[in-house]
Amino acid sequence: MLDLNPGMMVWTWITFFLFITILYKTALKPLLTSITNREDSIRNDLEEATRQREEAEELLARHKKMVAEADAEAQRVINEAQDLAKKSREEIVQKAREEATQVVEKARQEIERQHADAIKALKQDVVDLAIGAAEKILTQAIDKNAHKKVIDEYISSMQKSHKN
Fold this sequence. Notes:
Blueprint: H1 6-139, H2 144-163
Helix pairs in contact: 1-2
C-alpha cells in the first residue's frame, strides 16, 4: 500500500513552501502588482470618463443656453423690425392723409376762386349787357316791338363776341 516516509514528507513540504515562496516572489507579486495597476488604470479611466461626461453635459447646457439666448435675441430683433415697420406704415398713412387733405383744400379753394371769378365775370357781362341795351334803347326812341328787336340783336351780338 502506501508507505509514508517522514523524510520524504518533510522534503516535499520544504520543496512545496520553497516553490510557493519563489512563485510568490517571481510570479505572484508581479501578477498582483499588475492586477493592482490594472485596477488603478480602470478606476482612473472611469473617473476620466465621468469627468468628461460632466464636461460634455456642461457644454451641452451652455450650448442650449446660447441657442435660447440667440432665439430670444432673434425674436427681439423681429419684434423691433415689426414695430418699426408698423410705425413707418402709420407715418406714411398719416402723411398721405395730410397731403390728401391739403390737396382737397387747395382744390376747394381753387373751385371757390374760379366760382367767384365766374360770378364776377357773369355780373360784369350782365352789367355790360344792361348798359349796352340801355344805351341802344336810349339812343333810339322806338316802340315796344322795335325795343324787343334791339335787345335781341344786342344779346345775339354779345353772344357772338363772347364765343370768340
